[in-house]
Structure formats: C-alpha cells, structure tokens
Amino acid sequence: MRPLTSRRVGAVCLGLGMLLFAAVVISLRMGAYPIGISDIVTSLVQGALGRWNDIPTENKLVVFGLRLPRIALGILVGAALATSGAGFQALLRNPLADPYVLGVSSGAALGAIISLIAAPHAPGLIQVAAFAGAIATIAVVYFLGRRGGQLDSATLLLGGIITASFLSAVIMFLMTRLSGRDLRGMAFWLMGDLQAPSTVNTKWLYIVLLIAVGSIYSTASDLNLILTGEQEARHLGVNVERVKFVVYVAASVLTGLAVSVSGAIGYVGLLVPHLMRMLFGSDYRILIPTSAIGGAILIVVADTLARTVVAPTELPVGAMTALAGAPVFIYLMRRRVR
Amino acid sequence: MSASSPTPTSSLAPTKPLAAGANVPRVKVEQASYAYAATDRSAPKFTLGPASFEARQRELVAILGPNASGKSTLLRLLAGLEKPLSGRIEIDGTEIGKLDLRTRAQRIALVQQESELLFPLRVWEYVLQGRYPHGRRLRFESDEDCLLAGNALAQVGADALRDRWMDRLSGGEKQRVILARALAQQPSLLLLDEPTQHLDIGGKVELLRRLRKLADENRYTVIVVTHELDLAADFSDRVVLLQRGKCLRVGTAAEVYEPELLSDVFEAPIEVEMRAGGKPRVILRGNS
Asked: Which positions of chain A have pLDDT values less than 50?
C-alpha cells in the first residue's frame, strides 16, 4: 500500500515544470532570427530580476516582444484545455469526454463569426465575442442538462452534443457570408491558432486560469469518489451536486477562455489527461496539476513545430497537436494493454 | 484466503462514542413511511410503511420480503439517502436527516452490490476511499488511514488481494473488498443490500458468519436486506418482514416465521420446522 503523498505530487510537478521550462527555452530559440540558448536563459533571468536595461535590444525584441507572448498564451491555453478535459471526464463519467463535447467551443466560434460579420476590423472584439458566446452556451447547456433539479451526467452530455451540432450548423451557414481574408482567418480559428493578438491581456487570463484550476483542484478528492459512482460518493459523504456544479462551471470557463484566444485546438483536452493517468495514476489530486503542466508542454512543443516545420509557412497548432499527439497516445495505450 | 490478521480489530470500531449507554437503541425507526412518484404531481407509484423497529449495538437485523416489497427503500431511508415522508429514523438519538453528509458517512456505511469503476483502481486504493469521511478536504491519507484500511482488508480475509486491480476480481472477492471499504469508514451502522446475491452457498454462509462476527467484535449494528430466510434465521437477532410496502411483522425469526404468514407473503407453499436451539428452518412443501 503506497498512498499518494503531497511530496510525490510536488516532486512530479517539479519535474514536469522543469520539462516545461526546457520546452520554453527551446521554443524561444527556434525561429527565423538566430539566438543562442545561453543568451535566452540570460535574458530570461535578467527579465525576471527586472534588469531590462542589461538585455541587448534585439534579444529583448525577439524574446520578450515576439516569441514569449505567444508561448505564454500557449501555456495558458494548454493548461486550460487539459484541466478542463480532466474535469469533464469525471463530471460526465466518460473517458471520451473532452472540453468541446458540451458545445462551448461551438458557442465561442459562433460569437467569433458574428463579430467578424458585424464589425470585421474592431481590435479585440473577436475574443470578447467568442468568450460571450462560450458563456451563453455554458448557461444554455446547464439548463438543458438538469433533471429533477440536479445536473444529470447523461442528460448534460446529450444536451451538450445537440447544442454543439445545432451551433455548428449555424456556423456553417454564417461562413457562407464571409469572404477572402476573413474566411481564411475563421478556418484557422476553427482549427486552433496561437497568433497572439496584441489586445489580449494575458495577465488577467492567467488570474482566471488559476482560479478555475484551483476550483477544480479543490474538488479532487471528491472527483476520485464520483468516478467510482455518484451514488457511492454520496454514501461516503460527498456533496455530489455541489461538486458537479463547481466542476461544470470551472471546466466550461477554462474551455471558453482557451477557445476565445486561440480557437478550438483539438486533442489536448482528451489526450493529456489520459497520458497523465497512464504515467501517474488516476488520482485527481495528482491528475489535475500534472494535466495542467502537461497540457502547457504539449502546446508549447506543438506550436514550436507548427511554426518551424515548413517555415516560413505556419501550420495551425491544432493540426500539430493531433499529428504529434495521436501516435504517442496510441503507443502508451498499447504498452498499457500489454 | 489469508489467515486473519493479528492487528487489533477494535480499531475498526465506531469512532463516535455513543450518546447514551449500550441499552439505548442505536437505530430507531418510528412510523417511517415513504412514497415514490414518477413526477412531483403524479400519484405515488409505490408507498412504504409506516414501519417501526429498533436495533441495538452488536445486533444483526435482517429485512425480508419478496421482490418489490420495499426492502431496498427501507434501507435507503436508513442510509439517509431518502427522507421519510412521515415518522422519524434516528441513529444514536439524532435524526438521520439532520446529520451533515460527512458525519452521516462516519456513522453509516452502505454496501451495495456493484461498483461501476470508470478508470482502473487497485484494491487498496478502493478501500482507502472509505477513509474519506474522516479526512479534511484534499487531505492525503495518513499512516493511520493505511493501517485501518489494511485492518479492514484483513478482517474480511482479503489481505492477499490488496495489490490486485478491482476489475480483475471474482464476484466473491469484489464483495469482500466492498465490505472492507465500508469497515474502513468505522461506522456504527452497517447496511447491506442483498450482499449474498452473487455468492454460492458456501460464500453466503461465510459472509453471514463474518457479519455476525463484525457485529459482535466491532460493536456494529448490522442491517441486511436478503432473500435468504434460513441464513437470516441462523444469524440474525431480529427480522423485519415486509410485503408490498407494508411492515408486517418484527421479531426474532422464531416469532415471525409462521407457515401461513410466510406462504402468504412469498406466495409459495412454505412449512417451518423448529430445530434444536430454537432456530426455525423453512421448507418448500411439495418439493420434499
């Protein structure tokens, strides 16, 4: 008997954090302008210490002006999607659940496309409209998913899937109204794209991320029991309705947050929680933090590949997550089966 | 099966001291009734009660009756999962509905037949879940929790299973592990819903013998829903007989097992034979 300890959670997260740091440094190095690893690390350390004047101008521009904002956005999106996926898998009691299963991403896409049609050149409006679309969908699906005054997993799943397919139909209809650059932009957005718009204030997004991930983490012990059956969790003293409400709202907000700044990047929310489960076990007290860090690593690596593999052309990062993620997942799954 | 553990069994006894002495009933059901309805406005599809009985510590009570007689409903009321429509159900002098969720789970453990696991879990991880009501939010399990979970496994003779995966266990093994998780809760009231259903005759006798021992050694009150009339007569202190939602009779098996009554309730020709020691035995007429 070797139960999970806080020390083990800390050690695993520290290890993954170091991996994330390595991925960030490598990602900062890759690109058209050559810059050495030691220069990057020095710049990062000096930036962290606030000694901005000691950093050469070109390094400052490349590291802090161009590459780091995009990486910061990638970390945010990866952590949000993977945590949300882990949350939805427990909430819906379905291993195939991902952040998009309840239609939040379709709602965000609808918001985005409406803003593109109504005010095509308003800066930052597309993100705001997408987030509003996501929040509206969260509310609608919540009311569809209630049965007997409580959130019911099966009803919620059905309500979400129907909402998603309805919204997708509306999106397809509205896409016919777009043309040229807007259409290409929308296609990239639907696939998932990390071109950080300058209007997005990452600091606030990180605060929302921390609150939402923290909320889900606070229910980790309860989720462990809910995974063995809602009825049993109730016998053991879990306030199942409260936990489901917290996880539903927090996971949906995380999805809305990620989708509104980067579009619907696929696979991360499904793949990363399963990957972490295979590596560290299915206890949510370790699964939530490792999924958050693992999701960040996956997006940083995938985005680095997306912008360097066929440079100077950029691929949508969503295509990369699927390409890179699926084989790793299949390998781990086969190894586990054996 | 492994040998029984040398660890003290008392550690799995209830943690909460009884509010009153041992002579006060631990569980008191007073005129409790319940009704199921398809919707809030429709007429009830099924009604139970009113039922009244008591159970003290170290007592084993069997709830008997044919299918759809309300046995499981009564058990759900006792577990606090449903609130009675009228009447009261008390544990140690407190109404069950007034206990908060965690306190209720510290006092009452309910063993149902199957666990529907979504992701693979080891036996010891499953049994440790029984410690949940005793921990704070997000608390990681202490050495004491592990000791108690180990003791619980030993008490049900499932020591050797601790590192096995839950989904690889046989029906009987899984049954013992589910019981071990309930013991790890250190309850004062242990409720079991048809625990003998998937067991062979040897397994049934072994389980009832174990429950009897747990009631005696751990000072539990054990309430079992079962179809096994003979085993209930052998191992219980009292039986509660239900028919179509009505509580017909409460008493010792010798008092309740009347041939006419049982034949009527179970709609089968039943004879009752008294054995040495005052335990009745049920015989199906026409088959002997």
From this structure: 337-338
User: What percentage of chain B's residues is helix, strand, coil (to nearest 5)?
Assistant: 35, 25, 40
Mutation pick from A1, A226, A282 vs chain B, by most beta carbons of B within 10 Å, is: A1
d(CA A82, CA A76): 10
Cβ-count burial of B49 within 10 angstroms (0-12 exposed, 13-18 middle, 19+ buried)?
A: buried
Instruction: Tell me the three state secondary structure of residue B165.
Output: strand
Minimal CA separation from B119 to chain A, in Å: 7
pLDDT one-digit tens code per residue, A47-86: 888 888 888 888 888 888 888 888 999 999 999 999 999 9
Where would I find the beta strands (DSSP E) of chain B? Answer: 27-37, 44-55, 60-64, 86-91, 94-95, 108-111, 189-193, 221-225, 238-243, 246-251, 270-274, 280-284
E runs forming strands in B94-235: 94-95, 108-111, 189-193, 221-225
**Nearest 5°: CA angle at B142, between B101 and A224?**
50
Close Cβ partners of A117 (under 8 Å, ≥ 6 residues apart):
A174, A177, A178
- Rounded to two decimals, the ipTM of the complex is 0.82
- Label residues A273-291 b or e (16+ Cβ within 10 Å = b): bbbbbeebbbbbbbbbbbb
Residues of A within 8 A of B96 (CB-CB) are none
- Asked if A4 and B105 come within 8 Å (Cβ–Cβ), the reply is no
A96, A232, A239, best to mutate vs chain B, most B CBs in 10 Å? A232
Nearest CA of chain A to the CA of B62: how many Å? 21
- The answer to whether the CB of B123 falls within 8 A of the CB of B157 is no
